[in-house]
Write the C-alpha cells for this entry.
Amino acid sequence: MDTADQPTLADVAERAGVSVATASRALTGARPVSDDLQRKVREASKSLGYRRNTVASSLRLQRTETVGLVLPRYTTTFLSALIESVSDGLEHHDMSLVLRYSEPDAVHDRENIESLIGRRVDGIIICPPSLEVSRESIEAAGAIPVVQVGRFVETDRSDSVGLDEDRATSMLVAHLADRGAGRILVVGLDADATADVRRIRALQATGALRGVSVSAAEFTGAVLDGGIRAAERLVSEYASGDDGWSGPDALVCANDDVASGVLAVLRMRGVAVPGTVQVASLLDLAPGREDHSTTTLRHPWPEMGREAVRLLIDAIGRGSDRVARRVSLAPQLVPGSSTRP
Amino acid sequence: MDTADQPTLADVAERAGVSVATASRALTGARPVSDDLQRKVREASKSLGYRRNTVASSLRLQRTETVGLVLPRYTTTFLSALIESVSDGLEHHDMSLVLRYSEPDAVHDRENIESLIGRRVDGIIICPPSLEVSRESIEAAGAIPVVQVGRFVETDRSDSVGLDEDRATSMLVAHLADRGAGRILVVGLDADATADVRRIRALQATGALRGVSVSAAEFTGAVLDGGIRAAERLVSEYASGDDGWSGPDALVCANDDVASGVLAVLRMRGVAVPGTVQVASLLDLAPGREDHSTTTLRHPWPEMGREAVRLLIDAIGRGSDRVARRVSLAPQLVPGSSTRP
DNA sequence: CTTTTGCTTGCAATCGATTACCAAGGAGTC
DNA sequence: GACTCCTTGGTAATCGATTGCAAGCAAAAG
C-alpha cells in the first residue's frame, strides 16, 4: 500500500534531512537555498520519483493553471483545429485544458460553467452554443476571465475573438466581381436570423461599391439538401431551353455543404460552372482536405485559438481591471474550380 | 475584494448558524442531518451562491474526478469523434476531461503523462503516438488506471480498446469476393511495418478461404500522392492498348486518401471503376461526410470512446487487482460507388 | 570586541472540504 | 429508575504544498 502511493514533499524532506519548507523552496525556487541542500533535495526528489501534487498546490496558491474550453457539439469537424491550437497555446504556458461540450440549452450550458467554476479554472474559452442562452452563463463566471471565440454574445465582461465578417464578405464579392459577376444570389442564409441578416447586408454593401447587385434566395436550410433544393428552383426558373440562362451569374453559398448541393444540381442540369454561373462558399467546412472543387473562405481557426489563449492569459495576469477586447481575424480565400481562374 | 471571492463552506455554515461539519453533511448527504438544519443550510448555500471547491475536495478525498485523454496530433479529423464520445461518457459519470496532444517523441510523451499524474487524474485514456515510445510512459502511471485506445503498446498494466482487425479485413475481402474479385492488390500498406504486415497477412488468410489471391504493391506512402504513384504504375504495367486489363480486379487501399488518388488516376486513364477494377479502403478518414464515392470501412470511434470510458471507470472502481482486458470492435462497411452494387 | 546586516533555515499557519471521534439528548428495555 | 442504543451535532485532525515570521549564524561595520 505504501509503495503504491505517490511520495509527498514530506517524504522528500525527510530523505534529504531538511524541513518541508526547505524542500519546497529548493524545488520551486521561491526563495534561495544553499547549494548543498539544494543538491540533497533534488537527489532525494529524483530518487523517490517525487511529483508535485498539483491539487494541493492549487489549493494553497488559489490558482489551478487550468483553462476550461466549452464548445458546441455540432460541426465538430472544424472545431478540432481550434482545440488543437488552444491546447498548444496553453501548453506553452504550462496550463492544462479541461474540455466540455455544450448543447444549445440553457440548463446544460449553465452546468458546464458552474462545473468549471467549481474546479476553480483560471479562465474559460467558450464558443457560445446559442446567441440567446449563454449570456448569463458567461456572467455567472464572475471574476473568472472569459474569452468568447467564433461567436459573440454581447457582454461587457468578456473578450472575444472572431471572424472579420466585413472583410470576409468583401473578399468574396471582390473575387467574384473581378471575374465578371454582376448579379450575385446568396444561398443558404436565413433572412430571419440576426447574424445572417448582417452578413447579407455586408455582402450588399460591398457589392454596391463594385456595382454588383446582391440579393438573397429564399432560405432552404444551410445543409446539402438545402443547396439542392435552392439550385433546383433556380434551374427551373432561369434555365430556358438549351444553354439559355437569365439568372444570377454568381452564387454565394452559406457553406461548403450548400455549395456541394448547388454544384451537383447545376452540373447535372447542364449549367456551366464557372462558365455560366460562378459558385463560392462563405465557410470551409473541412479544412485540411485539399479539395479545391469549390472556391471557399477558410476560417482562421488555428489563429483564433492562439489569439484566444493570448487574450485569456493576459486577462488572467491583469486581474479585474480590464476592458472588453474584441479581435477580428481575416479569413483566407481559397480559390477553386467553381469560379473562374 | 470580499465579494469577488467565492463563498466557502464556512461562510455557508455561519450564515445557517451551524458548524462546517453539519453544513458539509447537509450538502453531501454523507450523514443524516435534521430536516430543520438541512433546510437552513440549503437556503444559506443558495443565497450565497455557494459552489463546492473541487480542489479542496479532491485533496481531502484523494480523488479528482478527472480523466486525462492523450491523443496524437496528426489525423485529427476522425479523432474528434473519439473526443466527443469520451467527453460524453465522462460527463455521464460527473467526471471532467483534461485533453493533451502528444508528439511521437518520447520526452514529450512522458511529460504529458507526468503532468497528468501531477494533477492526480483518476485515470488516463491514451492513443499511443508511437508503438515504441509509449510503453514506459504508460508504466510510469503506476497505480493510475490506463486504457489504450486505437493502438496498442504491449503492457500488462493497461486495458485497451481497438479495432477488430481480423473482422475488418475479412469483411472487406468478403465484400469484394462476393462481387467477383479474384485477384486483390493491396495499396498503401508497408510490408516493412509490423502492424501493416499483420494486416496483409489477415487479408491473405481471409482471401485463401474464399479462393482469392491477395498480394501487396510496393509501398508508395499511405497518402494521396502514394495512391497516385501506385495507380500510375499499375496502369503502365497492366493496361494494354484500349480497354485491355490484365491486372488485379480489386484494389484494397490503406485509407480513403490513398483510394482517392487511385480512383483519380484510374478514371483519368480510362480504366472502368468498378467495372474493370473495384476499389475499397480500409479506413474512413472523414466520417460524417456522407460521400459514398469509395467503399470504405468506418472505424467505430464513438463506440471505442464509450467502451474506453466504461473500462476506465470500472478499473478506477476496482482498484489494483485487475487483469488487462482487451476489447475489439468491428468496423462498419460503408458501400460506395467504387465497388459493384 | 560588539553591533548590525544579510542570508538560510525551520516552525507553524494556511488554503477549503471531509470525517474520525466525542458528547449530549432521546427512545427503548429490564 | 438505571441502563444501553441510536441519532445528531460539534471539535479538531487531515489531505500536501506554500509562506509569514522569527531564530540562528556568519560576515561586515563600527
Notes: Chain B is about 45% helix and 15% strand. Chain B has a mean pLDDT of 86.
